[in-house]
Design goal:
By secondary structure, the chain is mostly beta strands. The chain has 1 helix and 8 strands; from the N terminus they run αββββββββ. The chain starts with a helix and ends with a strand.
């Protein structure tokens, strides 16, 4: 009985840990230049595809009514809060990596090829945006 209970507890703990090794959830984006928390993001999955939106602007002095004036597609002049910045990422076969989608930098209006990699047991997320061989990586922190 005790052995069965112990195995069940270990199994649940492993399942909870595995469930966190996904980009799905709420994240704080961190400015890679200043280290300041910029925004709270929500990444959701539908049909095996990830999309992500800005939920809250967290930077000091951020205008909650700000709009994406630099965007050049249908997101032009849309409110930053609620703006979809991640589109179309899919899990790479056999890896804990999601790629193949795009990420929008709402400050510049530019879109980049996306790669999402959960790290530190899913507590952090490496978010890489690239254009050809050039790019940059931010580390986002999961919101508990």
């Amino acid at each position: 009985m005790k052995k069965t209970l112990l195995l069940a507890v270990i199994g649940l703990a492993s399942a909870a840990s595995w469930a966190q090794m996904t980009p799905v959830g709420r994240w704080h984006s961190i400015d890679d230049k200043t280290g300041e928390t910029k925004a709270q993001m929500l990444i959701a999955e539908s049909g095996g595809v990830l999309n992500g939106r800005i939920e809250k602007l967290l930077r000091k002095g951020a205008d909650p009514e700000a709009r994406c004036t630099a965007c050049t597609d249908e997101r032009k002049d849309q409110p930053m809060v609620g703006l979809e910045i991640i589109r179309g990422a899919k899990k790479a076969e056999g890896a804990q990596v999601w790629e193949g989608g795009k990420i929008l930098d709402p400050e510049s209006g530019k879109s980049y090829t996306l790669r999402l990699t959960p790290i530190d047991g899913g507590a952090k997320l490496e978010v890489r945006g690239s254009f050809g061989p050039f790019g940059r990586t931010q580390t986002w922190v999961r919101v508990p």
